[in-house]
Amino acid sequence: MEVQITEVRLVIQKVLYDTDLSYKHMRLSIPVNQVEDKDFLTPQQKMVLETKDIVSNKKNKIQFKLIEPSLEQTKIHLAKWDMSNSSSYVLLNDWMQVVERNNLKSGMVVQLWSFHQHLVPWLALVLVPQ
Q1: Where in the cell is it found (predicted)?
Q2: Which of 3, 37, 39 is nearest to 117 (CA)?
Q3: What is the pTM of this model?
Q4: Contact by Cβ (8 Å): 7, 114
Q5: Cβ-based neighbours of 53, under 8 Å, separated by 6 or more
Q6: 4: exposed, middle or buried (C-beta count within 10 Å: 0-12, 13-18, 19+)?
Q7: How far apart are alpha carbons 65 and 95 in whole angstroms?
Q8: At the topology level of CATH, where does 5-128 sit?
Q9: Are 49 and 60 contacting, i.e. CB atoms less than 8 angstroms apart?
Q10: pLDDT one-digit tens code per residue, 73-106
Q11: Where are the beta strands (DSSP E) in the chain?
Q12: 30 in Cβ contact with 88 (< 8 Å)
């Protein structure tokens, strides 16, 4: 069976900061104004992230499959947080396990890529050699 991968897009290349790696914050921050390809999300996915759950009154999240630098695959959630002067996408839930499994450290440079495999949304986190 042929694997069909489509819509490969660079989401962001960024230096990891302490806040991206801390148990206090428990998320990877992706500032919207630093996103390389604004179309990495479909219009439907963007709409989901802008709407709130009826029960919790919190903004919805989207589950992605994530390929880690170690090539391990996991599920992770993407949300959008709006602050007064800016907005960020954030990777949540199992993010700290990704940090630990891949020994991620402050100052490392990573790229986050998005793609679809048979219409299923995926993300890939890649370490950039320094």
Answers
A1: Nucleus
A2: 3
A3: 0.90
A4: yes
A5: 59, 60
A6: exposed
A7: 12
A8: At1g16640 B3 domain (2.40.330)
A9: yes
A10: 999 999 999 888 999 999 998 999 999 999 999 9
A11: 5-15, 28-31, 62-67, 73-82, 87-92, 109-117, 120-128
A12: yes
Kindly list the domain boundaries of the chain, sorted by start residue.
5-128
Q: Quick count: other Cβ atoms within 10 Å of Cβ 95? A: 21
pLDDT tens string 5-56 = 788 999 999 999 999 999 999 999 999 999 999 999 999 999 999 998 888 8
Q: 119 — alpha (psi -120 to 50), left (phi > 0) or beta?
A: left
Running DSSP on this structure, what letter comes out for residue 99?
A: H
Six token digits for residue 85: 């002067």
**CA pair distance 45, 107, nearest whole angstrom:** 31
Output the six-digit token pair for 49. Answer: 């992230």
One-letter amino acid of 28: L
Q: What angle do CA 111, 31, 123 make, to 5 degrees?
A: 40
Contact 112, 12 (CB under 8 A): yes
- Matching residue, tokens 């009154």: 57
